Amino acid sequence: MIDEELVQLLTPEGERVAHPEYESTLSGEEIFGLYRDMTIVRRLCNESTSLQRQGQLALWAPIQGQEACQIGPGRALAPMDFTFPTYREHGIAWCRGVEPKEMLRLFRAVSNGGWDPYKYRHSVPTIVLGNQALNAVGYAMGIQRDGAEEAVLTFFGDGASSQGDVLESFVWAASFNAPVVFLCQNNQWGISTPMSVQSKIPLYHRAHGFGFPGIRVDGNDVLAMYEVSKRALENARVGGGPTLIEAYTYRLGAHTTSDDPTRYRIDAEVEVWRHRDPIERVKSLLVHEYKMKQSRFDEVAEEAEKLALQLREDVLAMDRPDPITMFDNVYADMHPLIEEGRQEMIDLGVTGGAH
Amino acid sequence: MSQEVFLLPDVGEGLIEAEIVSWKVAVGDTVVLNQPLCDVETAKATVELPSPYSGVVVALHGNPGDMMEVHKPLITFEVGGDGSAPAAAPAAAAPAPAAEEPKVSNSTEGREAVLVGYGVANEDGVATRKNRRNGASATPVAAAPAAAPLSSGPVRTTPPVRLLAKQNGLDLSSIQGTGRDGIITRADVERALQGGGSTAPAAPRKPSAPKTGPTQSTRFVGHDLAPWATGPKEERILAKGVLKAMAEAMVLSKTTIPHAGVWLKVDATKTMELIAGLKQQSSLEGVRISPLTVIALAVCDAARHFPGINSHWDDVTKEAVIKRSMTLGIAADTNKGLIVPNIKEADKLDLVGMAQELNVLVDKVRAGTTSLAEMSGTSFTITNVGPMGVDAAMAIIPPGSGAILAVGQVAKAPWVVDDEIVVRQVVELCLSFDHRMIDGALASKVLAHIGKFLSDPAAAIIAG
Amino acid sequence: MATKTMTMAKALNEGLRRAMEENKKVLLIGEDIGKLGGVFRITDGLQKDFGEDRVIDAPLAESAIVGTSVGLAIRGYRPVVEMQFDGFVYPAFDQIVSQVAKLRKRSDGHYTMGMVIRLPFQGGIGAIEHHSESPEGYFAATAGLRVVSCSTPNDAYWMIQESIKHDDPVIFCEPKSRYWEKGEVDLDNPPANIFDAVVRREGTDVTVIAYGATVKTALRAADTAAVEGTSLEVIDLRGLSPFDTATLEASVKKTGRVVFVQEAPLTASIGSDVIRQLTEKCFYSLQAPGLVVGGYHVPYPPTRIEEDYRPTVDRILDGVDRVIGFGS
């Protein structure tokens, strides 16, 4: 099932392996930092699932199992790089500095965005599959015209890789040699559609067809994800053009909280992937190679717990916005229909008032 | 300590019920936040529900195998004082009912939480109207009041009324509309048809009560008065706001200021000619110049010549206080009633400056944005009653000043020029003054000066 | 400078040139717009003068053309996108409606979608299928977008520049049947309020509102009506969404009758919306219901019979007759 070409630097058991082209450049403390990131993100993700089950979120899209796919590249980004996510890049958002409560505004259904994209250099979520890949390429073309040394990282899943927009973005990235890295998280399932229906060939091969490099990485190996992303981003920054990284991973949870994967997957398959857990293998490495003490892992668990409780508090405090805010920021300028609508809402006494 | 009830959320996009598969807790158990409570099965999936509270299980509201309704109680907790989870009710939840009922938690108003969204709003039963448009601030269909003049411009009415008129051969432009903003109503047409007696079959006229008057409302110190015909026979309005302020100011004025007055009729033809001439000036496009502009200049000029008129009586110190800066009040009739906004240092303004300041003042009055500061410190007031169609008025002096000039309408009247009767544009002025410090001689000189200014403004401006 | 006579195509070309000179962030992107200068030559000569980085010949993918323009706008550029024909905008519809129209709102005002999407639209050029559409209604119905249309070379010259300067995304509809018609362009003085409606011909009996190609047809209808003794007031709408109610109201309150002329089918169209709003705002002045003269509810026909689909002088005058026939 796994291609020999897959880049791996750390086995599921937590042992290092060599690779002809990549090696891990991270120190023990840096690796511990990745462990911390993944642990916190997983804990916050689980809290969010609970919140949804308790009726506090309209929906939640979990990343359980995909933490390394996101933390690896997330920590390989340079400050000025720009990221264009889907709706599931909570790990990337974490690395970019987006506050957890800001990430949940969309799912609490109080906003369709949630944060200032320029502040974090992380674009607002895109739910329409594949749209963001084109937007990312356009942004990269802007970088070229500015002559800046910056890269763009954009994301989509195995399902979205069938979308016209994604394929068109490959065409453009190649034709214009755009400084963009495409990160495809192949978690094997597009809701209930298995990967085999989306593509007859390994996804990373597609890049070759379009004329730029593609590389498959063990998505649950945060060391490999980090190194491969880092190189691809540096390559883009200096004018080397686009790369497609296929992070080979597994969606341990459901597509979203409205999905029931037991209807189309077998438990045995899930179990196999549980043994490839991204966090466990890193912890193993830290214990055996760096002799990290349990107390350090306990501290991270405590920190994650605190953040989860804080997130819960923040979400419960997220009030229904004043409905009159629906008229804000639709246009840059005055628009008569906006003014009429706003006035009607005021006249009907629906809103809290002056705006 | 308080009780919290967890209602079963809709866990599958519009599902209305779920079956309890198994409980993972029992009554009396202490549970922590997010601890699994139970498995429920729906038509779509089996779902594990995590606890929204840390506390003690007080009641389980169903047994394994029971079909539980969504949005109904599933499990009740006793939630402790310290360190328990914060109340789960989001801001929009219904307010807590009587004290003995456990507080209802979860779910936005009327919606049942679903897996993919907050769920479809509950639309069962007859909805009661929550909001009604506030009539006072509703965007009006048409603008200014005032009855529509007869047959000037296109006829304004509704299509059914047009049809009625057309079917009866009635020319709508011959009818005065009595509807809101002068719109012709069905009743207007029917009335005209009865009165006209053209082709309508003549029903015998029953003796009837005299017509009880127009059907539109009128303004009364900031209130809309219902029409004579339909309003109450006796209506009482409590003195508040502008009504109260006006009543108090007028009483104060009349009981403390000994009022006296002098009158003058003026041939203002040259003032009207000057204004007409200025309107042709392209450099003054957008600047509204009116007789009031010239009168204001005249008043300031008179004050410069006779500072004593710009004074008031300070009864505390027993002093007559003369000001050498004109804070010129202009009485204005607004929707809310009478206000007197003023122009500070009006004596420093030339014709164009005065016109601009008056424009700003009028615009603010129309918009209702005159500030309190702009209504205080008036040293002299002009009240223009001309537009209402009268010749003069003996106005009441605003407390804090010493005089008020009432200006009537400018109308054609016979006048004697070189012993001949000619038609001139005549206006009548009345200056009311505080006879404690301003005597008749001063008031007369001031009024004569103003009159002279109006009768030849160009000369007066040059003379300075 | 002063005024020059030129075709609408040339006026657009000059307007684009001027916009690119004044703001280095303005980019053009579209199919065949560079070396070829555009299939209608609207962008003729611009790549030569401004370079390939600013006048981009795009691969053949409309969704990508708009989608990458979104990214360019996020980066601070002002893309002017050309859709080659109205009927080919649909692959880009998703990006336009899901991203272009909504990103300002989704980002709480942080993102500015300062782009223009140019559409050669309407028919009357004897083309084959998909080259004569009127899709402006879909965009007018989408909050976040502004939709405009020019009918004269002077308006084209100034409207394209104003649209490029605007911080909202503008769907810019160019009546391709008028590309080659000449008119005076005042190169120095922009008309005030170019997105407001403008009275092209004063009249007293019926208000006729049109946009794009139908403006000229309405003016010709007014000439014929005058001979017949009816005075039409013809208004060029210019801004389609939002549109200038003040000018329209003043006219309808004067005449009491209104006919809206469009090539687009009657269903759920700009005309439907204008008449709806005028009915509310001018109810007491109306002598008759507002009528729309437009395309039939069919796919645009083979162009051998397009003249019986597009509003003609006769059909406009028929609308005028009907509206007068309601009496007073």
Task: Briefly characterize the structure.
Chain A has 355 residues and is an alpha/beta fold. Chain A has 14 helices and 7 strands. Chain A is globular and about 70 Å long.
Can you offer a commentary on this structure?
The complex is a heterotrimer of chains A (355), B (464) and C (328). Helix content of chain A is 45%, strand content 9%. Chain A is built from 14 helices and seven strands. In chain A, strands 1-2-3-7-6 form a five-stranded parallel β-sheet, sandwiched between helices. The radius of gyration of chain A is 21 Å and the shape is globular. Chain B is α+β, with helices and mostly antiparallel strands and 464 residues long. Chain B is 22% helix and 24% strand. In chain B, strand 10 and strand 11 (223-225) form a beta hairpin. Chain C is 35% helix and 21% strand. The longest helix of chain C has 15 residues, at 8-22. At the A-C interface, helix 6 and helix 7 of A face helix 3, helix 4 and helix 5 of C.
Give the secondary structure arrangement, pairings included:
The complex is a heterotrimer of chains A (355), B (464) and C (328).
Chain A: H1 28-53, H2 67-76, E1 82-84, H3 90-96, H4 100-103, H5 117-120, H6 131-146, E2 152-157, H7 164-176, E3 180-186, E4 189-190, E5 193-194, H8 195-198, H9 205-210, E6 214-218, H10 222-237, E7 243-248, H11 267-274, H12 278-288, H13 294-316, H14 336-347
Parallel strand pairs in A: 1-2, 2-3, 3-7, 6-7
Antiparallel strand pairs in A: 4-5
Helix pairs in contact in A: 1-2, 1-3, 1-12, 1-13, 2-3, 2-10, 6-7
Chain B: E1 2-7, E2 17-23, E3 30-31, E4 36-41, E5 46-50, E6 55-60, E7 67-69, E8 73-79, E9 103-104, H1 159-167, H2 186-196, E10 218-220, E11 223-225, H3 241-256, E12 259-267, H4 269-279, H5 291-305, E13 311-314, E14 319-322, E15 328-330, E16 332-334, E17 337-339, E18 342-343, H6 351-367, E19 380-384, E20 403-407, E21 411-417, E22 420-434, H7 440-455, H8 457-463
Parallel strand pairs in B: 1-9, 15-19, 19-20
Antiparallel strand pairs in B: 1-8, 2-4, 2-7, 3-6, 4-5, 6-8, 10-11, 12-22, 13-14, 15-18, 16-17, 20-22, 21-22
Helix pairs in contact in B: 5-6, 5-7, 7-8
Chain C: E1 3-7, H1 8-22, E2 26-30, H2 46-50, E3 55-57, H3 62-74, E4 78-82, H4 93-100, H5 103-106, E5 116-121, H6 136-140, E6 146-149, H7 153-165, E7 170-175, E8 182-186, E9 198-201, E10 206-210, H8 214-228, E11 232-236, E12 239-241, H9 245-255, E13 258-265, H10 270-281, E14 291-295, H11 313-325
Parallel strand pairs in C: 2-3, 2-4, 4-5, 5-7, 6-7, 10-11, 10-13, 13-14
Antiparallel strand pairs in C: 1-8, 6-12, 9-11
Helix pairs in contact in C: 1-7, 3-4, 8-11, 9-10
